[in-house]
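Changelog-adjacent note: as of this version, every example in the card shows the full chain rather than a window. The one below runs 168 residues end to end.
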Amino acid sequence: MLESIITSKTRLRLLIKFFINAANEGYLRGLATEMQESTNSIRKELNNLSEAGYLVKNDEGVRITYKANKQHPLFGLMQKIVRKYVGLDAIVEQIVSRIGEVKRVFLVGDYAKGIDSGKIEVVLEGKEIDVVYLSKLTKKAEEEINKKVSVEVTEHFQGNGLLIFEQV
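Full-length structure tokens:
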């Protein structure tokens, strides 16, 4: 879907890295190692995204770090597009609305760090969750988004993760 609009795989991976979780940041060599790509291809895309205003450069002396520009007028839209591409919206929509009293949903693992590994790990916080039905919905979500989905259920989540849903 998004690959037909953004033809550079490197650019797409960088957008996922920085827009799935706005707290994610990275530097040239670290990103090249993480994505197993050359520093030249990473540098080119970081420069393009920075010049367009999507990323903010921060010169820390020895390193220049990059992170999503939350002040960019399209920041919210970019975040929604990336999350839709990854499949988070489908997971939340299919799972949360149908399985019980879900208070919060956290994204953990690789995708919370902005790494497009193909395995989405989610923690559901709530009570009286129908785990049998959850299993069926998880399989359906996997087929729809074409990614592996791992769901953990707990009454009180104490770990680190990206909050992607909260019942108000």
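Structural remarks: The two ends are 32 Å apart (CA to CA).
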